[in-house]
Write a structure and sequence with these properties.
The protein is about 45% helix and about 20% strand.
Length: about 450
């Protein structure tokens, strides 16, 4: 079977790829199984040195990798370069901190010695999305490799060269054969790989539908899984918020990466006392974003990754307007292949797609509320629970409200982001399990109790 990648800025075919056959898949899984004992037995400092070399390779190749990312999924040049740098930094972070995260933890009991030990479990299958085609991979890969696991990657079909360039960076850094490999396969083949006895666990970042399928398959095989799914993050604006800082945060959080971010602010829940002023300034700031060639430094809004995704987003916008939402900006597709302008819908209420569903693109929903209590209620009135932010001039108030948000990450006066130092993941239908930090490195390990009488 052949798959094609289409440049979202031009509509032209970028790359054509033949999917792997059964023999190629078998060779990769056999190599992975063979590599695991040697890799897991390798001293942690040696694994750390190799991971640092991976980071160095990413920095050396950053311009070439950026061009591939931009051609395959339309990411702005400056956003792509920042993503690559973040991956390199994560390699350095885990190389430095894994020893502390993985050291035995003594537990006081009546035994002469008792402690918790962390042991790698084997091959982790990663099913990754296109929106952050390098970072999403390294978010699981850096801790997994430092933990002593090996990995195989099933990347999104529209970013195959991103998968390959990751594999090349690891190879040239000296990571042994079999420790990591990219699998160019379809969803049915991925399900077969997960069922293979040589695969110990799976991690997925993607849609709720994909999560249900992969999690069901993992459950049937009694294999550990981590699911990072969709989000409809609340951006709560209280009446004492600093408008300059809040509007800048709103623009960055909603329209970065063309709005195609699970932890992007999507529902702007604004207390009436500040709503008119916030909305006016938000519209003015968003209107200044320039949709265009993502390689052009003057472009400030990237195209969406695929035309079908743009069309689906527009259907959600149209349905919301038909049910009473007020279009304040944009809300019509660009004439370019997959472009959608910065768009804002006001008067969003329950029953509209803009309230109930995730809008995975550059569309902001304004939800007006009477006070702080209603803001918290509306923020939690969603099936999702990935991230959320609170904007206020009172840090103590912000902390109090943040603690009430039902999500995996709550930020006060800051845009929600992933950070190697903090655990990342969601609750409700945004998934389960954690990536990053100490919690992430422990997800794919056998947490073993040792008791010596």
């Amino acid at each position: 079977m052949t798959v094609e990648t289409i440049n979202p800025a031009t509509g032209k075919i970028e790359y054509t790829l033949e999917l792997m056959d059964a023999a190629a898949i078998e060779a990769i899984l056999a190599a992975s199984a063979s590599a695991f004992p040697q890799w897991s037995a390798r001293p942690l400092p040696e694994r750390g040195d190799l991971l640092r070399k991976v980071g160095a390779q990413l920095r050396i190749r950053r311009d070439d990798i950026q061009k591939i990312m931009t051609a395959e999924m339309g990411k702005l040049r400056k956003e792509a370069l920042a993503e690559i740098d973040k991956c390199a930094d994560a390699c350095d972070y885990y190389a430095e901190h894994a020893a502390v995260y993985l050291e035995d933890q003594p537990i006081a009991t009546e035994a002469s010695s008792s402690y918790v030990r962390f042991e790698p479990i084997g091959c982790v299958l990663a099913v990754m999305p296109w929106n952050f085609p390098i970072w999403q991979v390294f978010r699981f890969l850096a801790p997994a490799l430092m933990a002593g696991n090996v990995a195989v990657l099933k990347h999104a079909s529209n970013v195959p060269r991103c998968a390959d360039v990751i594999a090349e960076a690891l190879r040239d850094a000296g990571i042994p054969p079999g420790v990591f490999a990219a699998l160019h396969i379809d969803n049915d083949q991925a399900a077969d790989v997960l069922r293979d006895k040589r695969v110990a666990a799976v991690t997925l970042t993607g849609s709720e539908r994909a999560g249900r399928s992969i999690a069901a398959n993992a459950g049937d095989q009694l294999k550990k899984c981590v699911m990072e799914l969709g989000g409809s993050d609340a951006f709560v604006v209280l009446e004492d918020a600093d408008l300059d800082k809040t509007v800048a945060g709103a623009v960055a959080s909603r329209f970065g990466n063309a709005g195609q971010t699970c932890i992007a602010a999507k529902r702007f829940i604004v207390v009436e006392g500040i709503a008119d002023a916030f909305v006016q300034r938000f519209v003015e700031a968003a209107a200044r974003l320039e949709l265009g060639d993502p390689q052009d430094e003057a472009t400030t809004l990237a195209p969406m990754a695929r035309q079908d995704l743009r069309d689906e987003l527009h259907k959600q916008v149209q349905a919301s307007i038909a049910r009473g939402a007020k279009p304040l900006l944009g809300c019509e597709p660009s004439a370019s292949y997959a472009g959608y302008p910065a768009s804002i819908l006001d008067a969003v209420v329950p029953g509209m797609p803009a309230y109930e569903e995730e809008l995975f693109g550059p569309v902001a929903s304004i939800l007006r509320v009477a006070d702080e209590a209603e803001a918290v209620r509306v923020a939690n009135d969603t099936t999702f629970g990935l991230g959320g932010s609170v904007w206020t001039g009172d840090r103590e108030r912000g902390n109090r409200v943040a603690r009430q948000l039902q999500c995996g990450a709550a930020f006060v006066n800051a845009v929600v982001k992933s950070d190697a130092r903090l655990p990342f993941g969601g609750t409700k239908r945004s998934g389960f399990g954690r990536e990053l930090a100490e919690h992430g490195i422990h997800e794919f390990m056998n947490i073993k109790s040792v008791y010596v009488a």
